[in-house]
Amino acid sequence: MATNETDILIDKLSETVFPYLTDLDYSNKMSTLDLQVALSEEYEINEYIADKLVSAWEYDRHKELVTKSKKISSPDAQRIKILQTFVKEVL
Questions:
Q1: Is-contact 24 35, C-beta < 8 A?
Q2: Which one, 25, 27, 36, 80, has the greatest CB density within 10 A?
């Protein structure tokens, strides 16, 4: 995958912008479009870059939520293994 100037800019801005987007989303529960507009106004960036940053932030948040849900369901996975072992022994 080729890295271009836009990717480099998004990488640099993400460190500052992601916490801002998280705070903004938690306090206002904004739509994706509203987040893009707020971001472009706050950081004086064009809509294309704002869209790419919000998309990257949403992807990052999704990965974080999936990771958390796997940790939460870990005890359930252990219970399932115990039940499977029990069933195997009974049969």
A1: yes
A2: 36
Residue 57: CB atoms within 10 A of its CB come to 21
Question: Are 47 and 36 spatial neighbours (Cβ–Cβ below 8 Å)?
Answer: yes
Q: Give residue-wise pLDDT tens across range 48-88.
A: 999 999 999 999 888 877 776 666 556 677 777 777 777 77
Kindly list the domain boundaries of the chain, sorted by start residue: 5-90
Could you give the C-alpha distances from 62 to 48, 49, 57, 74, in angstroms and in order? 21, 20, 9, 18
Contact 18, 60 (CB under 8 A): yes
Residue 42 confidence (pLDDT) above 80: yes
